[in-house]
Structures are given as structure tokens and as C-alpha cells.
Amino acid sequence: MKNDDLIHNPDGGIPRLLEIMRRLRDPKTGCPWDIEQDFASIAPYTIEEAYEVADAIERGDMADLEGELGDLLLQVVYHTTMGEEAGHFTFESVTRAIADKMVARHPHVFGDESRDKSAEQQTADWEAIKAKERAGKSERGTLDGVAIGLPALLRALKLQKRAARVGFDWPSTTDVLDKIVEESRELVEAKETLPQEKIEEEYGDLLFVMANLGRHLGLDPEAALRRANAKFTRRFEAIEAKLTERGKTPSQSDLAEMDALWDQVKAEE
Asked: Domain NTP pyrophosphohydrolase MazG-like: where (predicted)?
């Protein structure tokens, strides 16, 4: 099949998408914008598309999720095409590596280990396998391999989980709550007496402990904050709608009125 035939074949699947990307990146006949891109310039789009997938899932919009998953898949194709051009890897080598990894990490499914394990035991086995993989990559420190480019809240959670595996953790949720009180007090004191950079440091300490509280409560801090954002958006938009009924905009209102409307919207929920 000619490449043009493949590109216009709706049933071409992954080979079609790979060929489309190769054509977009062709130095002579491709798209000027696509040709100029590199790993670093595409990385922000990759992160953005991953968040848009999460957003579609949060909203329960399956039609939108289908499109967002396609956008995310395109990012993988983009990176693997650039990797192939530079001789680093290919789409095939990437898929082979992840398939090999999944088989190796699930000996109870693809090997001869028993599937009769608790969720806790399976998690422990999974982490033991990952620890061996990190050792093979010369990652000796407990925190080695936790990506610096992760969103700060997610990275805080991963760092805390790694430290907890070797026993560096508060014994109980109560201890974490006590630490939050301590960090809150230090932030108040910093606000009154210290320069801005120290205030930021104390604020960061408080956020870090708040992430740890979520972990101790069995919650995902990122998901919890996403839901809080969605709730705030929903309620504030309801306030705007009620103000519109009064012939007003938020800038024409005041805090007392909007606060009262907030309580009303909250009660109506």
C-alpha cells in the first residue's frame, strides 16, 4: 500500500498515525511548525494533554475522553518519531519495552507465581520489583528516580511515599495534624517578621505537610484539589448567575452580597 493510500485509510490504525507524523516531520515536504519542534518544546503539550484526559474522566464525558486519548496518543507518536529520527528509539522499541515491563511486573499473571495474594501483598511485590529495576539503573538513593518535572503536589506525594517505605514517616494521622498546626504557626510568625522568601519557604512547608496528610488519610491530594477547584468554579458561576438575575456583575457587587449568595448556593446543593 502506498503511503498516501495509508494516510487516507480510516482503518489504517497505528501505522497510519505513524506515517502521518513522519510526513509532518519530513524536512522537505512537512509542516514547518512540526519540523521545528523538539522533545523540550513538545513536552508541555504532552503534560497538557494528560491533564485534559484526566479532566474528561472527572467530568464523565466519554465522547470527549475518546478525543483526548487520541491527542495523548499523538504525543507518544510525536516523541517516538523524533527519537527514531535521532537514532535513540522507535515506536516499536517503546511498545516492546513497556510490554516487557508489564510481563515482568506481573509474574502472578504471566509467570508461575500464585494469584492468591492480597492487594497489600501485590503492592509490596510490585514495589520490590520496581526497586530491583531502579538498582539496575544505578539509582541507589531512596528518592532517586522521582521525576523533577512532575507537578509539585504529585512529586511531594511520591517523595513522601518513597521515604515512608524505609520508615521515615509519622506513626499516625494525629502526628501529621500536629505538624500542620506547627507549620501554620511558623507561617504566621514568618509573615510578621521575615522577608518574602522565608514566607514562601514556610508556606511550602505547610503545603508539603498537607500533601502528607492526604496520604495518611488514603486520599489523592491532586484529585482532592481538582475536585475543590471544580466545586469553587461551580459555586462561583452560580453566584454570577444569581447576580445576573439582579442585573449585576461581580464587580458591581460587594463581598457581603456575594458571600450571602455563596451560602445560598451551598445550601441549594
From this structure: 37-110, 176-235
What tens digit of pLDDT does each residue of 41-90 get? 999 999 999 989 988 998 899 999 999 999 999 999 999 999 999 999 99
Contact 82, 39 (CB under 8 A): yes
* Cell numbers standing for residue 101: 515491563
CA distance 105 to 97: 12
Q: Which CATH number fits domain 3-105: 3.20.20.370, 3.40.50.720, 1.10.287.1080, 2.40.480.10?
A: 1.10.287.1080
Rounded Cα–Cα distance for residues 214 and 220 (Å): 6
Alpha carbons 127 and 130: distance in angstroms, whole number = 5
CA dist 92 and 59 (Å) reads 33
245-261 in b/e form (b: 16+ CB < 10 A) is: eeeeeeeebeeebbeeb
Q: Could you tell me if 160 and 150 are in contact, meaning their C-beta atoms sit under 8 angstroms apart?
A: no
Q: Is the pTM of this model over 0.70?
A: no
Terminus-to-terminus CA distance in the chain, angstroms?
58
Of 93, 67, 68, give the one whose Cα is nearest residue 80: 93
What are the CA-CA distances from residue 47 to residues 57, 66, 149, 204 (Å)?
16, 17, 10, 23
Q: Are 165 and 130 in contact (CB under 8 A)?
A: no
At residue 147 the predicted structure's pLDDT band, cuts being 50, 70 and 90, is confident
Backbone angles phi, psi at 149, to 5 degrees: -80, 0
